């Protein structure tokens, strides 16, 4: 029983050096290696039934089918993190990116789920290990 508390989790996949994004997409977008499809499947499995909060670009990248069995909420910089999380008592809220969201919501995150993928190429969005000890 969760007694109305919000459980806050963060989930992301990173490349070998912490790569998160490239030109608005996942850096490994289109790579046929099954490890990337398996990661996407794991994301949808873990987040089923839960609340996903995401910045506008990340929110736009979440496919429409995902809305059927999870609640996807776009968050803006004007939103106050504590107030956003208080909107979902008793729910599990996944902080889904981009980096500005992970940075802002890190002090509330109770569980980090980070998958390290074999990607070793370019990126313009990066994981920051400081998020893990924020707050
Ligand atoms: N590897 C992964 O697991 C993963 C997961 C998600 C995303 N990504 C990648 O990350 C990239 C998208 O991220 P992005 O950073 O470019 O855009 P984004 O998802 O739109 O996130 C950043 C935006 O969120 C808004 N925001 C909401 N709350 C905020 C807060 N408290 N503080 C600051 N800003 C806040 C801001 O927009 P406003 O100021 O307009 O409100 C900010 O510009 C893509 O490349 C995507 O593929 C990777």
Describe the structure.
By secondary structure, the protein is α/β, with parallel strands linked by helices. Helix content is 24%, strand content 23%. It contains 4 helices and 7 strands. It has a 5-stranded parallel beta sheet. A two-stranded antiparallel ribbon has the order 2-7. It is globular and about 40 Å long. The two termini are 26 Å apart. The structure holds NADP nicotinamide-adenine-dinucleotide phosphate (NAP). NADP nicotinamide-adenine-dinucleotide phosphate is lined by residues 12-13, 20-22, 24-26, 54-58, 61, 75-77, 79, 81, 96-101, 104, 125. NADP nicotinamide-adenine-dinucleotide phosphate binds at residues 12-13, 20-22, 24-26, 54-58, 61, 75-77, 79, 81, 96-101, 104, 125.
Q: Which term fits the overall shape?
A: globular
Architecture in CATH?
3-Layer(aba) Sandwich
SS field, number of helical segments = 4
The number of E-state strands comes to 7
Q: Provide the residue-averaged pLDDT.
A: 97
Q: Look up the CATH topology.
A: Dihydrofolate Reductase, subunit A
How much strand content do the residues show? 15-25%
Summarize the helices and strands and which ones pair or pack.
Layout: E1 7-14, E2 19-21, H1 34-47, E3 51-54, H2 56-61, E4 71-74, H3 81-86, E5 92-95, H4 99-105, E6 111-116, E7 125-126
Parallel strand pairs: 1-5, 1-6, 3-4, 3-5
Antiparallel strand pairs: 2-7
The structure holds NADP nicotinamide-adenine-dinucleotide phosphate.
NADP nicotinamide-adenine-dinucleotide phosphate binds at residues 12-13, 20-22, 24-26, 54-58, 61, 75-77, 79, 81, 96-101, 104, 125.
């Amino acid at each position: 029983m969760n007694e109305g508390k919000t459980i806050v989790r963060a989930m992301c996949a990173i490349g070998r050096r912490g790569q998160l994004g490239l030109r608005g997409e996942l850096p490994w977008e289109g790579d046929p290696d099954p490890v990337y499809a398996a990661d996407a499947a794991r994301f949808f499995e873990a987040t089923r039934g839960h609340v996903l909060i995401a910045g506008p670009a990340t929110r736009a990248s979440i496919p429409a089918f995902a809305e059927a069995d999870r609640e996807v909420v776009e968050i803006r910089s004007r939103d106050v993190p504590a107030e956003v999380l208080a909107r979902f008592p008793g729910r599990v809220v996944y902080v889904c990116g981009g980096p500005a969201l992970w940075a802002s919501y890190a002090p509330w995150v109770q569980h980090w789920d980070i998958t390290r993928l074999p990607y070793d190429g370019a990126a313009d969005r990066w994981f920051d290990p400081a998020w893990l000890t924020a707050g």
